[in-house]
Structure formats: structure tokens, C-alpha cells
Specification:
2 domains; six-stranded mixed β-barrel; Barwin-like endoglucanases; 45% strand; mainly beta; globular
Length: 193
């Protein structure tokens, strides 16, 4: 019988920056300041924040997550599209930036206009290969996830992401968590629909 339960943690809007954009926004040679390790190995929250701007509005204090990435991407909540003025911002897996929305990043030294990189993160579960075997799932498989109590629901189209550097953890965003009446640290369960 495969395992079915894992921890669920909520993500707020955040940004991953390339080395080039770190230096443009904060200055040549600037190094991001790690404040807290995240559950995924090697991933961390930084002390630094930026402002992200769309055609209609902006959000200040958007947390940078490290380490630096090959390409800059910003993950927003579905409810953010109205304030930013980015209707049609696509739901994507991290790193799938083709056809994503343009946006502007404002830092202490400069601002950077990106042609792409703004996405709404697709809900997902991280698996290391051993956990994936125990759960009977493969990379890119879509599953249904039961989560929450009073306002609980079964979420469809939760993508399984399998990689040796991952730790078992489900990521939903704050919009989804609020709709379900949950916070970080609850248990989710993969169910057959």
C-alpha cells in the first residue's frame, strides 16, 4: 500500500533572482543575506526584498529566495493579478517561463524590466526519488490532494516533482491556504478521485 500523507506549507509571493539581476538591483559584487533555511535543501529566505511592478500597481517588500537562479522569476498569488494589472498571468511550474508575463523589479540601486518571468505557481509536491517510490508517483504526474478540515477540499492537478535534491513537502500558496482555512504545517493526503 503506497504512502499518501505529507506536510503542506504555504508560499507567499516571492522572487528568485539571477546573478545579473542581483548586481543590477543591489550593486556589483553584492551577496544576498541568508536569514532562514527553507524545508527544501539548499533553499533559503533572504533579508533583502524588492518591489515588483505591473502596468497598474506594485507590491513592496517582496521576499527574495536564494540561492541565485539561472533566470529571474517571480511567483505571485492569483489575487495579485488585479493590483498589478496582469490579467492572464499564467499558472506554471517553477522554471517554465516561456510565455510568462513581463514585469519590473525595483531595488535600492536600480530597476530592471523583465520581458518574462512573472507566474502564478502551480501547486506541487516535492519528492526525493525514495519518497516517490513509497508514494507510487513519478515526475510530472498529476494527483488529487485532500487538505483542510472545516473548509477542506480536494485539490486537482497537483503536480509531483521528483528530484534527488528535493525533500518531501507540498507547496500551496496563500490564496489556496486561505480558501481552505489552513496554515503551514498541516497534513495533506493524496487521494483517488
Amino acid at each position: 500500500m503506497p504512502e499518501t500523507k505529507m506536510i503542506v506549507n504555504l508560499s507567499n509571493r516571492h522572487i528568485h533572482l539571477s546573478r545579473e539581476d542581483v548586481e543590477a538591483l543591489f550593486g556589483k559584487g553584492y551577496q544576498l543575506t541568508k536569514t532562514k533555511d527553507l524545508m527544501q535543501p539548499g533553499q533559503f529566505a533572504c533579508a533583502e526584498t524588492v518591489t515588483i511592478k505591473g502596468p497598474k500597481g506594485q507590491f513592496e517588500g517582496v521576499r527574495i529566495l536564494g540561492p541565485e537562479r539561472k533566470e529571474t522569476q517571480c511567483e505571485i498569488l492569483a489575487s495579485d493579478v488585479f493590483k498589478l494589472g496582469v490579467p492572464g498571468c499564467p499558472v506554471r511550474e517553477s522554471g517554465q517561463l516561456e510565455g510568462s508575463f513581463p514585469f519590473e523589479i525595483i531595488g535600492p540601486k536600480a530597476s530592471v524590466k523583465k520581458e518574462k518571468g512573472l507566474i502564478i505557481a502551480k501547486r506541487h509536491i516535492h519528492f526525493d526519488p525514495e519518497s516517490a517510490k513509497r508514494f507510487g508517483v513519478v515526475d510530472k504526474q498529476l494527483v488529487a490532494l485532500k487538505v483542510g478540515e472545516e473548509r477542506g477540499a480536494i485539490l486537482l492537478n497537483v503536480v509531483c516533482r521528483v528530484h534527488p535534491t528535493y525533500a518531501l513537502e507540498c507547496h500551496l500558496d496563500f490564496d489556496e491556504g486561505n480558501a481552505l482555512g489552513i496554515g503551514s504545517g498541516v497534513i495533506g493526503e493524496i487521494v483517488q478521485v
